[in-house]
Structure formats: structure tokens, C-alpha cells
């Protein structure tokens, strides 16, 4: 009888790595060395990592090895983690993907970094982002990040490097940020699971600001259980962040420990068909319907639900985002000639927003929240395709919708911004691949502070399917 081939380290998710640590079959120090080697080999092809924190990671791995040996592991003990380059790490530049901040050395860790490392996570790399998380794919300072599934395509933004690195199996988890879908879009296009938490659930202390109204920080990983474990560490009140709020007890710890329910019996899932399924690629739509059927087979009660104000969310949300970003970056106004033209154009729109239009947009936000509140009297979760098409081409920045190229910026945030404006949590996870072999994705939206419900449904789905286990060739 032939021996069972062990799973390569890079194919293990966070929970699998920790089980191997627990059994003594794997060493955190060996895993970190493997991660460093993979970054050296793969990063030149996809350009997702800006800085490898070699000494910091090796020291943390040694501490994790000691803790496992002594039987005192923490929740993320020994798990390698990347960080979008908007979060401060003491002694390391926080560039925000911009030439303006190349010498912007952080003097302390962001709160999410502190929580990650206090939980045993091994922070190993700073990941690429679009300029100040608002620029275009072709970053003039660091270049574009290529999608591991197809190097002619973009990995998505603005958490572009975080998603590409996790998809390429450089490490199993990463910290991203999301102001209009910037965790969920790259998760969608890279075949990953990404969570945009409830507004205020994860503190932003020490994270470069972009938008007070729409921005959140959250995890990107390969599975709902991994993401749940990371979110359980990141969330919670931070009095240094005025927008941080307490998070209620919700049973997340069970899912974070890898305990996935066997079914979704009685869970009510609403399908928002109007608008979200319009102008949507046929392969994305077909895989979405298959995912809905799988949720139904797991016991979920499926019905249609309406979000009447959703069609205006992308336009109004970007008005808010660009205006708030312009307020943040007014200090850089005399240096914008050194920046990404896409970012400059967006900030310029923000500088021109009238107070009347901004206030009207804030009022729309309240009305949109009322839309969601009404929908959630009838359902527990709302399902939509995460993005209307698969990853955009880097040469012309278009997304193919049934063979017709659409400008990426016109369609990419159709299902993203609506959640940021309403402040509700949403998880994106793989639903299959299209005819070209690129990932498609489904998004589950939950009530505020009900991340556990969306993540549990995603976990049950992933326990019954294998889409989240597919690996791009470059990562093999």
C-alpha cells in the first residue's frame, strides 16, 4: 500500500497549518521559510508584495514554535499573514502605494497589527495597493498587480496585492480595506473569501484614512472558517478610533474554531435580482444560480427581495468616497502632479462636490439603510453576484459581459458600494469559474453585526462544494 502524499505547506489554510503544528508534524519556522521562498519565486511574476518582513517574521515564528511546544497556542499562532500597505507597522514605510509616502515610516503598529500579532499571527509582508487605495490598476510607482489566474488580467483593487498574494499561496491570510468593494472585488477575481465587516466593527487606528463614511478594514482568506477566525481577532472596540463600536457576542467563535453546521435549515436567503443580475455575464449568472441552488439544498429558504434604491448606490457612493478622500488629501493638493492620474481625477471630482450634494448623499445613505432594514424583516441574508464579470484585462481595463467589453470602473462596484454605504457586512466567496477558467463569486449580505450568519452560510456552502479549493497554475 502506497504512502499518503502529505499536503504541501503552501496548500494548507490557516486551520490546517495549526492542526499540523498541534500534532508536531510541522514547524512555524519552516512554514515562514517556505513563504519567503515562494514570495521570492512568484512575486516577480505577479508583483503583489512590496516588502518582506524577514526578521520580524522569523522572530515571531520562533515564538510561535515555542508556544506550540509548550501547549499554549494563541488563536492565530504561527499563521503567516500579509498586510495591505495602508496599515502601519512600526519601523516600516506605510506608503499607501504612493511616491509621496515612500519615506513615511510608521512609529507604531496599527491596532489591527497589534491584535494580529498578540493572537500569534506572523506578519510577513506589506502588500501592494492602488495609490492611496483610490487610484487605478497601473500604479505609477509600483506597477500593476497581475492576477494569479491569468497574468494578462488585474487582481482587483484596492486590496490588490493582498488578494493576489493569498491566491498565489504565498500565505493563507491577509488584511485588506474596503471602501467600495476593495476586499470583495479582488476576492471575487482571485477565487478567495473576503469579508467587509459592519462599519466600525474593526478599528482603523493606524490605517491611512480614505473615507469616514464608507471604509472598513477586514480579512481575506481561502475559506469562510479562516476568515471567521481572523475576524474574531480583529474586531472589537478601540477607544482610540471614534468610529469604532463594540461588537456583540454572536457565536462566531464556534465557526472560527472550524465547526461548520451540517446544514442551513430555516435560514432565509433573499435573492436581489433586479439591478444586480442585470448587465451580468452569463457565466457569472449561471454560477450564481448554481450556488443559490446549493444553498437551497443545504436547507436555506430562498425567496426574492427588493432593494429599490440600490441602482443609485454606486454613483452616490462614489460621490461620498471621492469627496471624503479629497478632504483627507487636501494636504497633498500641491503635489498631485506626482500621482496616479486616476487618483487625481477622482480627487478632483471630490474637490468640486458642493455641500448640498454631499448632504443629499448622506440623506440617501439613511434611506438606503431603511431599504435594507425593510428587506431584513423578511430574510436573514441577501445574495447577489459579487462582481458582474470576471477579472478585467490590464491592457484596456475592461470587463467582459457576454463578450462585450465594459469599462471596468463603470460596473465593478455594482454590488460592492451598496454595502459600504449602508454599513452592512458582506462576505464574498467563490461560486465557480467562467469559460476562460477565471473565478466567479457570490456575495452574502447580512444585517449589521451579523457577520457570523453570512460566514456560516458560506462555510456550509464550502463544506459541500470545492470551488474555494481550486488553485491557479502559478501557485502549484
Automatic annotation (TrEMBL):
Query: Keywords in UniProt for this one?
Result: Transferase
Any one GO MF annotation of this record: transferase activity
Coiled-coil intervals = none
Boundaries of each Amidase domain copy?
A: 30-454
Alphabetical list of Pfam families matching this protein: Amidase (PF01425)
Top-level taxon? Bacteria
> Metal-binding: present as a keyword of the record?
no
Q: Please give the family membership noted in the entry.
A: Belongs to the amidase family.
Official protein name in the record: Aspartyl-tRNA(Asn)/glutamyl-tRNA(Gln) amidotransferase subunit A
Q: Which source organism?
A: Pseudonocardia ammonioxydans
Amino acid at each position: 500500500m502506497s504512502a499518503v502524499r502529505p499536503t504541501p505547506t503552501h496548500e494548507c489554510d490557516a486551520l490546517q497549518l495549526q492542526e499540523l503544528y498541534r500534532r508536531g508534524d510541522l514547524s512555524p519556522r519552516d512554514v515562514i521559510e517556505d513563504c519567503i521562498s515562494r514570495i521570492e519565486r512568484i512575486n516577480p511574476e505577479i508583483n503583489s508584495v512590496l516588502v518582506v518582513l524577514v526578521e520580524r517574521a522569523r522572530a515571531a515564528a520562533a515564538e510561535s514554535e515555542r508556544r506550540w511546544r509548550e501547549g499554549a497556542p494563541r488563536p492565530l499562532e504561527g499563521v503567516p499573514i500579509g498586510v495591505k500597505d495602508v496599515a502601519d507597522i512600526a519601523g516600516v514605510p506605510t506608503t499607501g502605494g504612493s511616491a509621496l509616502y515612500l519615506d513615511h515610516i510608521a512609529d507604531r503598529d496599527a491596532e489591527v497589527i497589534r491584535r494580529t500579532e498578540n493572537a500569534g499571527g506572523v506578519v510577513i509582508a506589506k502588500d501592494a495597493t492602488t495609490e492611496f487605495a483610490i487610484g487605478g490598476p497601473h500604479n505609477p510607482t509600483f506597477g500593476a498587480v497581475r492576477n494569479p489566474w491569468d497574468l494578462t488580467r488585474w487582481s482587483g483593487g484596492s486590496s490588490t496585492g493582498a488578494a493576489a498574494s493569498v491566491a498565489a499561496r504565498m500565505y493563507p491570510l491577509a488584511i485588506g480595506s474596503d471602501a467600495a468593494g476593495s476586499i470583495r472585488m479582488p476576492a471575487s477575481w482571485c477565487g478567495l473569501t473576503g469579508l467587509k465587516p459592519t462599519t466600525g466593527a474593526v478599528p482603523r487606528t493606524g490605517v491611512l484614512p480614505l473615507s469616514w463614511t464608507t471604509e472598513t478594514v477586514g480579512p481575506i482568506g481561502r475559506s469562510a472558517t479562516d476568515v471567521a477566525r481572523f475576524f474574531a481577532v480583529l474586531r472589537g472596540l478601540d477607544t482610540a478610533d471614534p468610529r469604532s463600536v463594540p461588537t456583540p457576542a454572536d457565536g462566531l467563535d464556534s465557526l472560527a474554531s472550524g465547526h461548520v453546521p451540517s446544514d442551513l435549515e430555516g435560514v432565509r436567503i433573499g435573492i436581489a435580482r433586479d439591478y444586480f443580475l442585470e448587465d451580468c455575464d452569463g457565466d457569472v449568472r449561471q454560477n450564481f444560480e448554481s450556488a443559490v441552488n446549493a444553498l437551497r439544498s443545504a436547507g436555506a429558504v430562498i425567496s426574492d427581495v427588493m432593494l429599490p434604491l440600490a441602482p443609485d448606490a454606486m454613483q452616490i457612493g462614489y460621490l461620498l468616497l471621492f469627496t471624503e478622500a479629497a478632504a483627507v488629501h487636501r494636504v497633498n493638493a500641491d503635489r498631485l502632479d506626482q500621482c496616479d492620474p486616476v487618483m487625481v481625477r477622482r480627487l478632483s471630482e471630490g474637490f468640486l462636490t458642493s455641500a448640498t450634494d454631499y448632504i443629499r448623499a448622506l440623506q440617501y445613505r439613511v434611506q438606503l439603510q431603511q431599504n435594507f432594514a425593510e428587506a431584513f424583516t423578511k430574510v436573514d441574508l441577501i445574495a447577489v453576484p459579487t462582481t458582474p464579470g470576471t477579472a478585467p484585462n490590464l491592457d484596456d481595463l475592461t470587463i467582459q459581459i457576454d463578450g462585450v467589453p465594459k469599462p471596468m470602473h463603470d460596473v465593478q462596484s455594482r454590488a460592492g458600494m451598496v454595502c459600504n454605504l449602508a454599513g452592512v457586512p458582506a462576505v464574498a466567496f467563490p461560486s465557480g469559474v467562467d469559460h476562460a477558467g477565471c473565478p466567479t463569486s457570490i456575495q452574502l449580505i447580512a444585517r449589521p453585526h451579523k457577520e457570523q450568519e453570512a460566514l456560516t452560510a458560506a462555510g456550509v456552502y464550502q463544506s459541500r462544494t470545492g470551488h474555494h479549493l481550486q488553485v491557479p497554475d502559478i501557485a502549484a
